[in-house]
Amino acid sequence: MKQIFLFVSLAVVGFGVYLKYLYDVPDSQETINFFVSGFLIIVGIGSLLVNLFWKSSPFQKKSRE
Amino acid sequence: MNKKIIAILILTVAALILLTLYTFGPLSTKMSPKGNPDSLKPAEGGKVAVGPQDLPFVTYHNKDVRENYYTVGFPQTWQVTAGKPGGYELRFAGGRGTIRLMDVPDNTTLELFVLSQEEPRLKKTLLGYQRTGYDKLTLNGAEAYQLTYQNADSGGPAQTVQTFITGPDQAGVVTLTTRVGDFASLSGVFSSLAQTFRWEKQ
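^ inputs. structure came back:
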């Protein structure tokens, strides 16, 4: 589960970077592109950090020892 | 949930709030491109080209929009003011003109865009629009498409030469309008002006 979460986070960051730097934005839509790409990059990086610092997967219950 | 996770979540939310303020709030004005004051100064050194009838041209370097810096020359007697970022407004005896940058989507070509988007738009917005010419040119190594048309203007029938020049990111559009009766005497100047347009390498 943790690997899926990591993959989705990377995909979100990647899509945000694509929108920001590679996608050809029409003049009238630059503002919305700035917001959407920034949103995806911030949320994606946040998710990656959560994934990194979470000691176990956030989606799995701790097993009782 | 440990403290690091909570800190990351708080930072993420704070970054999203900042992003929203920067995009739609009071900080959003920084995003729109501004005109560069140097674009309105004639080039130093008096680089003057001579047009038809020994009409001296003055060169301007436009550095408003990154990736779309260009050089263009105007007859010395013409009144040149700032247009939208990357552009100029022109006034001269017998007519007016503009230079502007135009966004062309990646999934089309400039020629297709001109014929399928720009010309239909002109037909809709200009009273009595009638195409009188269409040419493909090469201006200083750049492909260009020149549309010539007449329309009814407030001062009588007007003739316009509109040149679309393929650019590194956006296209350059040179639009020059005069009264139909004055067109014969000004057409040489219009051609010379279009030929001074040159994209600058960065």
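Chain B has a mean pLDDT of 86. The longest helix of chain B spans residues 3-24.
thumbs up if we can close this ticket
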